[in-house]
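Q: What does the assembly look like in three dimensions?
Context provided by user:
Components: two
Sequences:
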Amino acid sequence: MTNEENMTEVLTGETDRRVASSATASPTSLRVDGVTAAELHAKGVHAWFGERMVLENVDLVMERTKVTALIGPSGCGKSTFLRILNRMHEIVPGASLAGSVDLDGEDIYDPNQRAATIRRHIGMVFQRPNPFPAMSVRDNVLAGLRFNRIKSKHKDEIIEEALTKAGLWSEVRDRLKDMGGALSGGQQQRLCIARALAVKPAVLLMDEPCSALDPGSTLRIEQTVKEIAHEVTVVIVTHNMQQAQRVSDKTAFFLSQDGNPGYIVETGKTEDIFARPQDPRTADYVQGRFG
Amino acid sequence: MTSELAPSPLKLANKRSNEDRLFRGVTRGAGLATFVILALIGVFLFIEALPAFRSQGWRFLTNTGWQTTGAHPQFGVLSALSGSIIIAVIGLIIAIPVSISCALFINEYAPDTLLRFIPFKNFLTAAVDLMAAVPSIIYGMWGFFILQPHMVGLEKWLSTFFGSLGIFQNTSGAYTSSFFIAGTIVGIMCMPIITSLCREVFSLTPSGEREGAMSLGASRARVIRDVVFPFSKGGMIGSIMLGLGRALGEAIAVAIIIALAFPLNFHVVQAGGNSIAALIALQWGAGGNLGTSALLAAGLVLFILTLIINMIASRIVNASKMAGR
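A: Here is the predicted structure of the complete assembly.
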């Protein structure tokens, strides 16, 4: 199907993607529990808020156990794209999209998929730390299991493992009963990472996870990203060029000009994007001449 | 080192502009006015109620009859007080689940638009607010003429199958004009208050927490249970207490429906009952000076009851705020 056909479909609402989340059919066996990292493949992704197109024809492969960085100036659609990757885009009123996203070959927008199940397999860490303030640190980590009615006899092990991976265990091992809101900003963000890792996602999406944090916390989180990358595919949106270079294997440069929809200018190995960019616009951006 | 050498905090003073002074004065006056009015009402009720209290003493709280004339007047507020509470409880049992569900539907599930041009969500919100604006006399008449005939069947069913529980017992065979029907109407009248306040509180749930839960694979129902409800607990209790205030104080609708009866009655599906507000509405001007004083004394009891309930409510709301945040 061409992109144009896709667009008309969305605009006329005939196969409005939002309908898919309410499908009652049983979910296909998307992934087997315990299987780690998966490849995410976005094909011809378009996005709209109301009538305004904000993202145009984005193709991107996010490889298994690699860290993919999405860079580009503000308002170029990076975050929108990220939210399309785990069906968070569709919860915004008036938002619609076209194209497809495959998780190890299965379309996450297939009408037989439950959006909630998809989100469990493709976790997300947000720009602002958002632990559940009325839950203890322990309950925050276990929240995903609770939400998905996963019973486990090894809760303590799950908590320790997730918090260790997120680089928080040594700081909170004696404070597991404290409220999530009582931690510092950097700790809260690592708690959110632990919370996302506890349900063993195949992909972890991170939307500028360090933009609200101090340099020390940022460093800790970057270490965490590098450590978890061997078992979960990571996609990270960042405004920080050094951060992209430090943590990612692959970089995609997004751009939108004069209020037009955002698109990908260039994709490649991170070292190539920063050292040998093919497109002059990429060169200008990574060398700090605009954005 | 002596304490004289330690710096003492500066006493901060600020020169206010005339504008500021005026504004401050007006708002402060309005703020104090609420206390003054509340105190004046209490004092007025107490003074006017004195003759009734002198006549009956503490028995005013334990008597059930309402004989305010003659050589040996005997009256008390007990059956009216218990009736008010019964009606309010029935009303809340009906109103709370319906209101909270309705607020959740408007907030979480209702589509913004229907058929692409009807602003469905706004319509629903406006309809709920409109429900609050309907005068209570209308509810009373509707309840008497339309609702009551349809409720009798349900009441008979309740008394047949649950009569052994006592409260659903019916010894007279008359099912109209009962606490149950009055309570249902009062519940319907409380619904818009509870619904619109709950909707307001639910909509304030931080989107960060909401999205955090969704990103972990939580269904909508889970998000409501684990994010929206814990966040809204205080507001929900507050809205229920406001509803309770209305339920306890409702006079006209109850007066139209209930058949005033003074014996203490806990049979909710049986004809006959009492409530302070309905009693005042129905007996006003009857029973001479002592009768009026007795009604004002009953009003004072209702006034104190609602004050206590509101104080308890604000305690609960504050406590849940502390625990939640």
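Follow-up: The radius of gyration of chain A is 19 Å.
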